[in-house]
Design brief:
5-stranded mixed beta sheet; 13 helices
Length: 417
């Protein structure tokens, strides 16, 4: 069986001298691989690289020398810049010519900006942290390296407050679904969402739903926190508590408002509670467990920009949506369950396109005609669309279409945008 690191990085890495290294040779128990997404043209990268090199050299001179290797994944615009920049680094690199693998790595780890420093386990290929850059900046001596995220229960703690400043124990959350609301008084979208959440909270409580919500504040003063929290009927992490930043980091919250929904065992149900509330303000489907197949709407389409998506376009009538879902769902469930058993994210998201403005916009963006049903795989991160050319769309043909895509056997059309 191929080593997971070779699956991730291919058959060859290179030293700055050009010497080839087999990725499987750097895998070892307890060893961490840092994937450094960077480029010579990027000023923040050039500022971070010396700090990373200092850390790397410090580790290599310590008794943890065998616990870290770094691989440079270049976003340089031509090979000469790559070679010059790699020459300043004491670690390995993905060959510049392997642009396809670089794109796949960027897509897999959802790289939206550089520098990014991702840490993975060398034996399993599983992600340890996607925020190695911040971890290093906060812990330049590497005292907590490799910065494995703490368990949720440890970060969450045991004491909280209500809006009367009365202390509440962890017992208030026992056996309940938990919604963590990342928000702040100074944030206009937050102030718009909060009244909606208040109404939903009261409604769900009236329906005797076993859940609780907690406010994780990004307010800039205790006065603002107190004023904002007074409008909320739920609990909060006290202002200034270190758990506030720790929870934001644990759930990789990039912006507010954000609503994370967690089950009674501390497992994430959805990271997009905000979108779920927008699509289901009455909470009919609370706590919003992910569906294998979703209707493509303005509330779900945000995924399309970041991930490969299978979309089956239909006329949009209820019967069409139901029929299309029944065709796609067994394929989606098979792939999702297979990935879940491996602890991996699915390589595709699955949607049914009906009668919605966002569906029309996507068809226009992709220069698609009005044909329905139309089966496609849209890969905006790599700027390609794949169109099924057969006549019959069945679970079997969808399955083959997906497997051919995953095997790299389909010919795509470059997107115009």
């Amino acid at each position: 069986m191929e080593n997971p690191l070779s699956t991730l990085l291919g058959s060859k890495l290179i030293k700055s001298t050009g010497e080839a290294v087999d990725p499987s040779s750097i895998a070892a128990d307890g060893k961490v691989i840092g994937l450094y997404f960077s480029a010579h043209w990027c000023p923040p990268c050039r500022g971070f690289t010396p700090k990373l090199a200092e850390f790397y050299n410090k580790i290599k001179k310590s008794d943890r020398a065998d616990k870290l290797e770094i691989v440079f994944v270049s976003s340089d615009q031509e090979s000469a810049s790559f070679e010059k920049y790699h020459g300043e680094m004491p670690w390995l690199a993905l060959p510049y010519a392997d642009r396809q693998r670089k794109d796949k790595l960027s897509k897999k780890f959802k790289i939206r900006g550089i520098p990014s420093f991702i840490l993975v386990d060398s034996m399993t290929g599983k992600t340890i942290t996607e925020d190695g850059r911040s971890c290093l900046q906060e812990d330049p001596e590497g005292k907590e390296f490799p910065w494995k995220p703490k368990p949720f229960a440890e970060v969450f703690g045991t004491t909280f407050i209500n809006n009367k400043k009365e202390e509440v124990s962890l017992e208030a959350f026992k056996g309940k679904t938990l919604c963590i609301y990342f928000s702040a008084h100074w944030c206009p979208p937050c102030k718009a969402l909060t009244p909606v959440l208040v109404q939903l909270y009261k409604k769900l409580k009236d329906e005797k739903k076993e859940f609780e919500m907690i406010f994780n504040s990004s307010d800039r003063s205790e006065e603002s926190f107190d004023q904002y929290f007074s409008s909320m009927p739920w609990l909060a992490i006290p202002y200034g508590d270190p758990r506030i930043k720790q929870l934001s980091k644990l759930f990789q919250v990039r912006g507010i408002p954000s609503l994370i929904v967690i089950d009674e065992n501390g497992e994430v149900i959805t990271r997009d509670g905000r979108g779920a509330v927008a699509a289901d303000p009455d909470g009919k489907e609370f706590p919003w467990y992910p569906k294998p197949v979703n209707n493509l709407t303005s509330h779900t389409a945000f995924v399309v920009n970041d991930e490969s998506c299978l979309i089956l376009f239909t006329e949009g009538e209820d019967a069409d949506i139901i029929s299309a879902t029944e065709i796609v769902q067994p394929v989606a469930e098979e792939i999702i369950n297979k990935c879940k058993s491996k602890g991996e994210d699915p390589p595709l998201q699955f949607f049914i396109g009906g009668d919605d403005e966002i569906v029309d916009s996507i068809r226009e963006f992709c220069s698609l005609d009005d044909k329905v049903p139309l089966l496609t795989i849209l890969d905006i991160p790599e700027q390609y669309i794949y169109i099924y050319e057969g006549e019959d769309i069945t679970p079997e043909t969808v399955h083959k279409f997906v497997q051919d895509y995953l095997a790299g056997q389909l010919t795509g059309t470059a997107l115009r945008g």
